[in-house]
Amino acid sequence: MSSLRALRPLLPILIGASIMLTMSMGLRQSLGVLMPALTKDVGVSVSQFTLAIAVQNLVWGFLQPFAGAWAVRVGYRMVMMVGAFLYVLGMVLLATAQGMVGITLGAGFAIGASMACTGSAIAMAVASRAVSATIRSTVLGIVSAAGSLGAMLAAPIGQALSQEYGWRAGAYGFVLLALIILPSAWYAGRVDTLPTPPSPRGEQDSAWAATVQALKHPPFAVMTVAYFVCGMQLVFLTTHLPSYLDSCGLDPMLSAQALGMIGGFNILGSLFFGWAGGRWNKLLLLGGMYTLRSIGIAWYFLSDASPANTLIFAAIMGFLWMGVGPLVAGYIGDNFGLRWQAMLGGVAFMTHQVGSFFGAFGGGLAYDALGSYTLALQVGVVLGLTAGLIQMAFAVARPGKPPSLAAA
């Protein structure tokens, strides 16, 4: 109870980080609702649009370690505010796009760079620094859960505006929602005024040395590789589920309802896995999530799509979605300290975003070439099961902390 009371002065930081995360994640997860009308109006193919989303994921992934290292030097507020401005700019570029150049600059480069500064790695690092180790995993789960509300808000708004007034109206609605990130990032930046937490014995003084130390630790390396499948599966769904439902002849609003359902069950999953990560092996939980996701994807796409099973599938995926964030952030904080947490989270996240590239662009290529998503789904399920089982096998081995931090 005393730990919870101690959170009261920190609430502006935690609420700011949560709202920043929910809007940045929710908006990008909802871009798929614009795809059917946008591609027809602007005259681009599904694979061309998904190439822009793939570029976004690569830019986000490869800039994330640099954003985390930059935050150590200049503070989190500066990094997050730059990211917030880039997000608004990216949405404006998308809303005014006349072809692939505008789409790629807006939805690709600008939003990708913004996500490196406002996404889960930075938000989780801010929350980790603000609270004590005893309640850190639970708080990370709460922040991640709050960060799941964005899709519930953005997807229905974007879909409704697009259906009524056209996809550009939906995109301008996203511009207005992106403005919320600015004050949220400012309040979350108050974390820079808090005392710097003590460094564990053996913590590295340079970003490069900390990265090498982490990559030499086998459980971190396996977690990083398995993260590839996480990104591939999730971005495939957020990008291509609206197109899949459209090809099945279902109501276009169902895609927004499904994305909203994912966002709602994200809350429950994030809370559960944040709580569970404080009690059980975080890597074992991660492996279990990847395995269960793959089974759920196989079940849904082998059955006939209907409103009922689509929403059930969305609920399952939502529960197993953003709970990854608090588990990865918590594992890094527990094993490598907080100073380089955002950067090391970014190092792991690079493979997640490479997977996202293949999930978005590869899924689009498969659809354009074959007229269906069957091959992309088969690859996603097989890789997901493989990664999940390998992750769990390493977790069961229960290796200790990295040697240089074992005495910390």
List its salient traits:
single chain; mainly alpha; 19 helices; 79% helix
Could you describe the 3D structure shown?
The structure is a single chain. With 408 residues, the chain is mainly alpha-helical. The chain has 19 helices and no strands.
Distance between the termini: 27 Å
Helix content: over 70%
Major beta-sheet overview: none
Give the H and E element order: HHHHHHHHHHHHHHHHHHH
Report mean pLDDT, rounded to a whole number.
Answer: 79
Shape: globular
Offer a quick outline of the entry:
The chain is mainly α and 408 residues long. Helices cover 79% and strands 0% of the residues.
Provide the fold topology.
Blueprint lengths: L1 H4 L5 H19 L5 H8 L3 H29 L1 H20 L4 H19 L1 H11 L5 H11 L2 H17 L1 H12 L2 H8 L18 H9 L2 H30 L5 H25 L4 H21 L4 H13 L4 H13 L4 H30 L3 H24 L11
